[in-house]
Amino acid sequence: MPNTKYDQQMEFFVDMQRCIGCHACEMACAECETNGQESMIHIHYVDRAVTTQTTVQVCMHCEDPACANVCPADAISKDDFGVVHTANTARCIGCSNCVLACPFGVPQKNEAAELMMKCNMCYDRTSAGKKPMCATVCPTQALFYGTREEIQKMRPNSTPVNKFFFGMQEVNTKVNIMMPKGSTHLKVH
Amino acid sequence: MYRLIKTLNRTALIKAIIAALAVIIIVFIGSRNLQHFDAALIAYLFGTVFAVFGVAYRYSVWVQRPPTRLYWRRSWQFLLSKDFAQYAFHSTKLFFRNIMLQRHIYPRGRMRWWGHFMLATGCLIAFAVTIPLTFGWVHFTLEAGSDTTYTANFFGFPVSQFELGSPIAFATFHALVWCSVLVTIGAVIMLKRRLTHGGMIATQTFEGDWLPLILLIAISITGLGISYDYTFLQGRTHQFMSVTHAITVILFLIWMPFGKFFHIFQRLAQVGANIYKVEGTRRGLAKCPHTQQDFASQLHVNDLKDVTKDLGFDFTLEDGRSHLDYSPEGKRSALAKAHFQARKDAGHFFG
């Protein structure tokens, strides 16, 4: 039965500018047992023709997840800790609604299995009070899992932000992105 | 009580009542005005009528959700189009592949597929046997002038004959025994996964994942108990065996609309989602403004814009385009570029 040692003081902080594209998180992600040994993290060049910048994307665990809302099979759920879980395998019909509706481009569809899969913050580990696999191996701490006090001490000139604007839509998330100090939100478009 | 009824979904309630009444009517028709109805099975009939009511109610509520309604309408629209023959063939193929054989589970794990296939096949055959018996659609009679020839009647019409003691008779009368064996083996395989798989241990719940398997095993074991009783105990424990079996089966029927078993009915939507994908691809693909590559059908992207608006989301951009016009990779890149710009504007890329 689910472990209830989930530590709500711990939060996830992402800083894409620190990503060096080493793929260590990708390898570690595949160790997560809730993914069935499939890596769910996204790392890719942002715009290879003009820059070597890479970006890393984990599920942002939205407060009102678009993926769960557009799921025709009620396969995606958010738990009491705010973790948005990967598709319930019994229900998912592999329609890809969630893949296309997620504003962060997170869910993936396993075509052969006709199943959507996504990061669920290494629930096998976080529900037991441990850190997600990706955050434990990231050498530049582009991915960091810890308390707000810890991140403030490490990044005194940054502010964690969890409010995003995609055009008219405001999206609030459980996962934070490290922004310049004093920022309140990130406007994507 | 009145307040409770007022909270019910009226459309779903009407459809559920119609479905339940339809079952009662076909019981009367199939059993020739209850002539062939087996009164010993009355409790199972009540359980089935309730299950039909509950499943129809939940299904109707489910289909009213904007994304589900979209797939429901689109599936029927494409199936009943000028390409009916092609989509009917495609749907039939998918029905056997994904519903009867559950082949989509195989890539998720070979033993997982074996477990689910045995469990599901046992259940489906058991439904096919017990529902016509419970409804009085099927009954057996002795052929006139013979005390060894059995006739199987369907809706009161004779459909086949077999000799008592023959292999066909043995296989027919023990059909539910074979189902019980299949279900038990399948459920044990699935239970073993739930005991040993770290990911499942972290996310499973008792009522959502364990109880359905325990209930299926209980139904199978108590069902086997009835056969064991009349084969080896001369029926001495019949009352106990039949009552315990009835309790487990009726619990299953009553719980079917509310718990995990509802996915049996939801799974059919997978066929509709496949047809939608085929038709969408045929109508043209959407190109991501960032990657400049096709990533989904334009139909799907456009439909999702409407569905998200129905659900209270508005991803419309200032220039009139939509964030949903971007592929998943394009969306991730847009976020990274916005983050880069914010850092750049602040004068420090790190901090």
TrEMBL record, chain A:
InterPro entries: 4Fe4S_Fe-S-bd, 4Fe4S_Fe_S_CS, ET_IronSulfur_Cluster-Binding. Residues 10-38, 48-81, 82-112 form the 4Fe-4S ferredoxin-type domain. Pfam families: Fer4_11 (PF13247). Keywords: 4Fe-4S, Iron, Iron-sulfur, Metal-binding. GO terms for molecular function: 4 iron, 4 sulfur cluster binding; metal ion binding. This is 4Fe-4S ferredoxin. It comes from Anditalea andensis. The lineage of its organism: Bacteria, Pseudomonadati, Bacteroidota, Cytophagia, Cytophagales.
From TrEMBL, chain B:
The chain crosses the membrane at residues 12-29, 41-59, 113-138, 168-189, 210-228, 240-258. Keywords: Membrane, Transmembrane, Transmembrane helix. InterPro entries: NarG-like_sf (IPR036197). Gene3D superfamilies: Transmembrane di-heme cytochromes, Chain C. This is MFS transporter. It comes from Anditalea andensis. The keyword ATP-binding does not apply. SUPFAM superfamilies: Respiratory nitrate reductase 1 gamma chain. The keyword Secreted does not apply.
